[in-house]
Please model this.
Amino acid sequence: MSLARSDQIQLDRFRDYLEDVAVREIGYPVAFDFDYSALAPFLSFSLNNAGDPFMPMTYLLNSHEFEREVVSFYARLTRAPQDQWWGYVTNGSTESNLYGLYLARELLPDGIVYFSQDSHYSVGKNLHFLNMRHIMIRSRPNGEMDYDDLRETLKIRRDAPPIIFANIGTTMKEARDDISVIRNILDDLAIESRYVHCDAALSGGYAAFLDPPPAWDFEDGADSIAISGHKFLGSPIPCGIVLARRRHVERIGQSVAYIGSVDTTISGSRNGYTPLVLWYAIKSLGIEGMRQRTEHSLATAAYAEEQLQLEGIEAWRNPQALTVVFPTPPEEVREKWQLASADGYSHLICMPHISCRQVDELIDDIRQAGGS
Ligand SMILES: *Cc1c(COP(=O)(O)O)cnc(C)c1O
Model:
């Protein structure tokens, strides 16, 4: 395989462009501080992880072994009940959330999904795919679910079992819905038939390392959990992890002769490369490395919040959040730093690769643009 000269030039130009824009990316929750060049040789194989990673497969060019280690690692971090969980590596949290909602619908076909106003934009689409009844719950100003609104709404819909879609780190404000509070509300109302899915796409990569940790995992009452792999951990290819209680998954698997496996996943052919990437990250960082990344990112976020405030900008963040929220700066600054914005505010997300120097440069730009 070789390229014409003009095509090679196009490719080279794209690389230069990426190197240029990457240093000014502080608005999206993706870590860049990785080096997976040791995995380059594996790009020479057509890896495919079709089917259930815990079952044998006829096609032998799969990385199921690594995928199992990755999901087992996250099962421990999310305090999943021993041997009573199942999971796989997905294409990202949209798929992980779709999977959690799919399980919920199979278990509670008459259920109503409750999710807050601050939920990710993909939730509406997933609910539409699954044709599930749903009710949007108000958010508090910090982006967290308004538990009073949840309680009042549950009270008047007692005929249908609730499926709670909780956010563990909302997209814009990194607010975390407290699933122990939610569980208490359900207990209070004597609602036994229920399902709790946690969208931990953003915070799932580091929630276990926060002190104190938020109420978000299986011991806290989750039935399934979604975590993005390309966000906090860092991956050149979007990917995610979904975990669920095993007894829920056992309701849906179907044996498929063609692949010689069980069809428990959403996609047929599945990425065999991203499990290697996640495995490499987990093995090279270890728990200690992840803890350090979390502390470093929290320190950068605290620095950014403080420096913006010193500049007279009304910046704030949720407790133990890596996301700093502030009024949207002038357009040229917003564009240059790729700042996601909504309703007049923007955020910067202090992923592990973000340095205090980048924060200083952003603030300089805001000052020069007359935005402070
Ligand atoms: C990023 C994100 C998603 C979607 O995840 P993808 O991996 O981009 O599909 C869903 N929910 C939240 C809260 C997110 O931050």
